Amino acid sequence: MRNPMQYLGQAVAYVLFAVVVGYFSASPVYRYLDPDKALIKLNFSHAGQPKQECRRYTQEELDQLAPNMRRPMDCPRERVPLLVELEINGELQLKQSVPPSGIASDGAATVYEKFQVSSGTHTVSVRMRDSRREQGYDYATEKVVNVESGQILVIDFEPETGGFKFL
Amino acid sequence: MGKVKQYGRYAFERVESLFDVAFGSEHNPLYHLGALGWFFYWIVAVSGIYLYIFFDTGVSRAYESVEYLTYEQWYAGGVARSLHRYASDALIIVMMLHLVREFLMDRLRGPRWFSWVLGTAILWLVFASGITGYWIVWDKLAQYVAIVSSEWLDSLPLFGQSIARNFLHDSTLSGRFFTLMVFIHIAVPLILLFVMWIHIQRVTRPDVNPPRALGITVFAMLIILSLVYPAESQGPADLSRVTSNIGLDWFYMALYPLLDIFSGMTVWWIVGVATVFLFFLPWMPRKKTFSAVVDLDNCNGCERCANDCPFNAISMQPRSDGHPYLKEAVVSVKKCVGCGICVGSCPTATPFRRRSALIAGIELSDKPVMQLREQVIRASAALTESPKLLVYNCAAGPNLTTLTGPGLAVLTLPCIGQLPPSFLDFIISRGYADGVFLTGCRAGSCHYRLGIEWTEQRIKGQRDPYLRERVPRERIGIFWAGVDHTNVLLSQLNDFRERLRKLQPAHKVHKQPAVKEDEDKVLDHA
Predict the structure, then answer these.
(1) Contacts of A73 (CB under 8 A, 6+ apart)
(2) Cys staple from B287: which of A71, B50, B109, B445, with CB 3.0 to 4.6 Å?
(3) Model pTM above 0.90
(4) Which ipTM value was assigned to this complex?
(5) Does any CB of chain A come closer than 8 Å to the CB of residue B235?
(6) Domain limits of chain B?
(7) pLDDT tens per residue across span B432-467
(8) Do B229 and A22 touch (CB under 8 A)?
């Protein structure tokens, strides 16, 4: 038979355990973003152009290939990396060469970047090169946006609708 | 590593001592951490099944269905939700304590690597179960968990498409992906259950159910917590907004803030290295263990060793040597931890047998029974002061080598369960000592799981082989000290010696008979 002090000890242990479980299940609060900030997310997946142009096989090359492997054109699978730049209020925030995915580097390149900005009006410029050109960009958009505290502004890319779009 | 374990074990045992005072060793929750883990798992499983009945697996209705459960049906659904969360959190606590305790007590090396390595897998599965659970509530916390988790997964060069893109905007939110998460939240706990089952396959009588009183009280505690502080959502998810302050469940998401400091790949490295470290701990350094060996000439297939082995290392198989017995014991070297508990259970391991023939049916290869008897005789010869006291101690128990003196000798065994009860009879009836004191690990915390329990039952006559009734119990002292109770042990030893001093010397009570040549053939003790 246990004495009252032992039961009290057990009660203290159970209460402590319950308090620890209850408290740390949702506390302390984690500050993910300052309350007066907003978030700009640049996220898209896009396949750059092939690194080399297709070329026609010569007869000599075709003769060296097994009959079932012969095709008229040789199209290397590797794609160029995307060059992505983003400016906010004229300040360069991102300049990144994004490699294509896949073992043969023939998949889409994925960009996923987040930028914290204070709430208010900002000029956002985003540019991308997805071709073999050495200079310039294939897509570029600039937009003045007004973001509220806690807002997430998404910049997506849809080549079929003209390029970058702000959501 | 050795010092960390030494001091860590001491500290852990101090806390266990405190709990012993309040709960008693039988109901001490720290001795049933694994069983409590199982208990919490079942609470989570049953409450989860109830929640799933009312849960809408579509992304657009999931939040509302959880809100309905929480508020409209607070008396059942709300309590079930709270139980689901709090039991999951409690599972993390007991699981981590279980891991730390097994490490500090060095219960992971040798053949025990099996349970440890599977425990490492269990860690991952428990965390995956919890994370996916928070994901499917689809409140603000779920939004945070979904985005941060998928960003973290995307940092691995494994996925062709970005997973985080699913949670970029309402227009990209995929209902099918959300439903997949619901499926994963059911599938992963089922896999977890399977791995938990394998985790205990190499132990006999696994402790998977806490003592009833402990289980009832813990469940009552969770119910009260659920009613007083019910689990709630943090507002519906909105992918166009970011929540600045989030109430994280720190038991499952303690690493998530790291992803705001380091890159996803760095955090993968941190958890990967930690996992690999945990995985290989049983071999750091490699422990040399001696397994039990069966001597068929002395094994009559009685099965006591197989029944007493705590690690499922002994099986009974058809007789292979032509002796007129049905079965023989076979030891699995891979599973045998070398505790010697089987030797303590063997009826042929009696020191009354003639020395030349003293080979038991099952022996520890590095510490045969003949050697145990020689140790007794040698130690007894060195005792010059009355009362003469022999102390048997476990290797995993306190270090008592300094106690040896003119009236006291310490004999160390791998586990106290290795001591056949006939040795107590032998020592006292032959006058090798006036008393025998048994000590080692703490009660409820035997290093080899069942050594203390079996020893006590053998002495009380509750488990075969029994200690003969003729052995005066007042000449046997027992105190399960552990490493943090050395002072109490010394005090107990002194008290025991004082009691022995008041008794007649043992050799006057039981006159030592001359050893007969054919005594081993009688095997009277068996």
Answers:
(1) A54, A55, A56, A57
(2) B109
(3) no
(4) 0.87
(5) no
(6) 32-283, 292-522
(7) 999 999 999 988 889 999 999 999 999 999 999 999
(8) yes
